[in-house]
């Protein structure tokens, strides 16, 4: 982890660690033909994986509370009766500068955000006063009821993401039963803006379904936008009453020339709304962070797991 959080390495408490077919960091999410073997690290970052099928794997990990994916560079060959120790591993999550503000918890889920009460006609009593309240039917339609004319506006320092950040950025249903895309705003203040610097916006998504995320700064009509994901996702999480699907992470450089001292606005637009399943075009955010320009001081890494894994096949 960077020095902006801690000068020392931090044990990867609760890290998810697994062996999956070789690929890039995070590729285990899309693998559907190979075998995978996963466990969680203890409070000190130690773990072991046992009873693994013979074959060649990469070791992958991610740590709740930190963005990004880890992959051990060397392939791991598992043979009958083997006992492998990969030693101590260090993960350095993406970080350029100090946190100016953040929204959410980097845990690959949108569960911490505001989940509305269901339509009384569709209440599932199993999920009344239940932690998984997002499993109620039709919650996506509550967005248009809460925001009939104007989209969500979130103000840093005043708003509370547990109350003011709708759990999914969905389309808005109009009176004629058609749908329109939505643009959310994040309002924030900057005390100082060094015009020669670059700020960094980190956005991780918990899921996306035939959606596009466009980013603009201080001009909602800027064409082209500062950044766009293009059309992403086929998770269908919204329709299936889930709270996460595939994980997406984007790091967007913001030239300081686009920002001003004082009040600024970040515009998040999801424009796709013109298909028979327009109600389910949308995305769920996992975590958003704005970092200031980096300083010249070096950074250090996070220790997600100190490993004595005993990756054996019994």
TrEMBL record:
Which keywords does this chain's UniProt record carry? Signal
Q: Does the keyword Signal apply?
A: yes
One Pfam family of this chain: fn3_3
Q: Residues in domain Rhamnogalacturonan lyase? A: 12-84, 99-290
Q: Which InterPro entries match?
A: Carb-bd-like_fold, Galactose-bd-like_sf, Polysacch_Lyase_4, RG-lyase_II, RG-lyase_III
Annotated segments matching region Disordered: 294-314
Alphabetized GO MF terms? carbohydrate binding
Task: Write down what this protein is called.
Answer: Rhamnogalacturonan endolyase
**What organism is recorded for this protein?**
Prunus yedoensis var. nudiflora
């Amino acid at each position: 982890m960077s020095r902006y959080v801690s000068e020392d390495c931090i044990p990867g408490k609760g890290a998810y660690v697994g062996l999956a077919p070789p690929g890039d960091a995070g590729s285990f999410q899309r693998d559907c033909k190979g075998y995978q073997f996963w466990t969680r690290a203890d409070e000190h970052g130690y773990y072991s994986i046992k009873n693994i099928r013979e074959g060649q794997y990469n070791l992958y990990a991610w740590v709740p509370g930190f963005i990004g994916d880890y992959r051990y560079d060397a392939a791991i060959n598992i043979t009958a009766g083997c006992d492998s120790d990969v030693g101590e591993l260090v993960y350095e999550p993406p970080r350029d500068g100090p946190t100016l503000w953040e929204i959410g918890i980097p845990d690959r889920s949108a569960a911490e955000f505001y989940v509305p009460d269901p339509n009384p006609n569709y209440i599932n009593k199993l999920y009344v006063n239940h932690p998984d309240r997002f499993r109620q039917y039709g919650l996506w339609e509550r967005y248009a009821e809460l925001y009939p004319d104007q989209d969500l506006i979130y103000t840093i320092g005043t708003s509370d993401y547990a109350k003011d950040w709708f759990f999914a950025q969905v389309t808005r249903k109009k009176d004629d039963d058609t749908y329109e895309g939505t643009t959310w705003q994040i309002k924030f203040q900057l005390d100082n803006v060094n015009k020669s610097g670059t700020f960094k916006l980190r956005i991780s998504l918990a899921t996306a379904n035939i959606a596009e995320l466009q980013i603009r700064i201080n001009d909602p009509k800027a064409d082209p936008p500062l950044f766009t994901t293009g059309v992403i996702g086929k998770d269908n999480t919204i329709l299936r009453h889930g709270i996460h699907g595939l994980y997406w992470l984007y790091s967007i450089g913001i030239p300081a020339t686009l920002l001003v001292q004082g009040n600024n606005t970040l515009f998040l637009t999801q424009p796709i709304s013109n298909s028979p399943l327009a109600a389910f075009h949308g995305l769920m955010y996992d975590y958003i962070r704005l970092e200031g320009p980096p300083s010249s001081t070096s950074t250090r890494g996070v220790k997600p797991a100190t490993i004595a894994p005993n990756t054996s096949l019994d």
